[in-house]
Design brief:
The chain contains twelve helices and 15 strands. Helix 1 packs across helix 2, helix 1 packs parallel to helix 9 and helix 7 packs parallel to helix 8. It is α/β, with parallel strands linked by helices. The strands form three sheets. An eight-stranded parallel β-sheet has the order 8-7-6-5-4-3-10-9. Strands 11-12-13-14-15 form a five-stranded mixed β-sheet. Helix content is 46%, strand content 19%.
């Protein structure tokens, strides 16, 4: 129990699996995934996009493997990727086998369209032979025909039954390294299906609202659907599905996790919407700071507030703050306390310097603490 229990999230206990070097489930951090939108056989373009996503913070990247040319390219892509690669497989089970042989860390299969149980068994064997995990991808848009006939429409019960059916198939083949997703474009259906599945299995859950929409509308739908589940402690890895650059998916995913205090990466900016009281151009300033501080990976907080109504109070809760004042200058706060004034024209460069210095100091403290812990461990031996 923390000193602020109203912020605590009790995560659902789940089994831990591995997607390459990334742990998923159990006490592992909730990982952020995205998916490339290049043609996979365009090796250079796909590798460039994978690296851009990894630089933005993606823990895992998925690539589509719709044809043999894609699975042939996969070996080179996997070798060049700084993060584990998931092979996305639909319709042809042989692509899954080829992807496993090419070094994919995980195979994403949709049970509704992968084929017969016998074909799924062959995929499981390939996963075992090559050390792959599997994601069972249940989707409201591609449920099995018998389930649609019985339930008349996609519903939580049908999605859960589909998922459990294929969990049994994996477990009957002595395979435990799996996670599962139950995605729909409807946030209500998505949430209800995941809540029911969370009660039915201890498998790690991959969260996502599928076909969520463009950057703005899709981000909002994902924040509502995933935020609701994550707040309830449900979810072990997430993907934000946007009709946008995959890097944007990573950014949105991290912002959702940061807002719930579930992951900490980079600078969290607290800023006001601006109004007639503002002592400087808040919107332009925040946009410039977001761009110039993108390289900072150390978790820290920065408040940028246009006036003194809420500025001092917000600054008190952040590592660094700036509050607009009068006569073309504002107050800089360090560790919650008013420290010095600076002119608006110098403010952006000055804040960037302060953030970089603070990040460097925090990293030095972390390294020293880790060294001290390691030394203590060696001494205890």
């Amino acid at each position: 129990m923390s000193i602020r229990p109203w912020r605590d999230i009790a995560r659902r206990p789940s089994r831990k699996i591995r997607v390459g070097k990334v742990e998923v489930g159990g006490d592992a951090p909730i990982s952020v995934q995205t998916m490339t939108n290049t043609l996979t056989h365009d090796i250079r373009g796909t590798i460039a996009q994978v690296r851009a996503c990894a630089e933005a913070g993606a823990d895992i990247v998925r690539v589509s493997c719709p044809d043999e040319a894609s699975t042939k390219a996969l070996k080179t892509i996997v070798a060049a990727s700084p993060v584990p690669i998931v092979a996305d497989i639909h319709f042809h089970y042989k692509r899954a086998i080829e992807a496993a042989e090419a070094g994919a860390a995980c195979l994403r299969i949709n049970p509704g369209n992968i084929g017969s149980d016998a074909k799924v068994r062959e995929v499981v064997k390939a996963a075992k032979d090559h050390g792959c995990s599997i994601r069972i991808g249940v989707n409201a848009g591609s449920l099995e025909r018998d389930l649609l006939e019985r339930y008349a429409e996609p519903c939580p019960e049908a999605m859960v039954e589909s998922g459990l059916r294929h969990i049994r198939l994996l477990e009957d083949n002595d395979f435990q390294e799996y996670k599962i997703s139950l995605k729909a474009s409807d946030v209500f259906l998505t949430s209800a299906a995941y809540m029911a599945m969370a009660e039915a299995t201890d498998a790690p859950l991959h969260l996502g609202v599928t076909e969520a929409g463009g950057r703005v509308s899709g981000s909002i739908k994902s924040a509502i659907g995933l935020g609701n589940l994550l707040w309830a402690g449900i979810g072990d890895t997430i993907r934000i599905s946007l009709s946008a650059d995959p890097v944007e998916e990573v950014k949105v995913g991290y912002e959702i996790l940061k807002s719930l205090n579930l992951r900490h990466k980079g600078v969290t900016i607290i800023s006001c919407p601006s109004c007639a009281r503002q002592g400087f151009d808040v919107i332009r300033t925040v946009a410039m700071l977001e761009e110039r501080l993108e390289h900072v990976k150390t978790p820290l907080t920065l408040s940028i507030i246009g006036c003194v109504v809420n500025g001092p109070g917000e600054a008190r809760e952040t590592d660094i703050g700036f509050t607009g004042g009068g006569a073309g200058s504002g107050m800089v706060y360090l560790s919650g306390a008013a420290d010095h004034k600076i002119g608006n024209g110098e403010m952006i460069d000055h804040i960037v310097d302060l953030v970089e210095q603070k990040a460097e100091a925090l990293e030095a403290e972390r390294a020293a603490a880790e060294a001290e812990e390691a030394a203590a461990g060696q001494a205890a031996q």
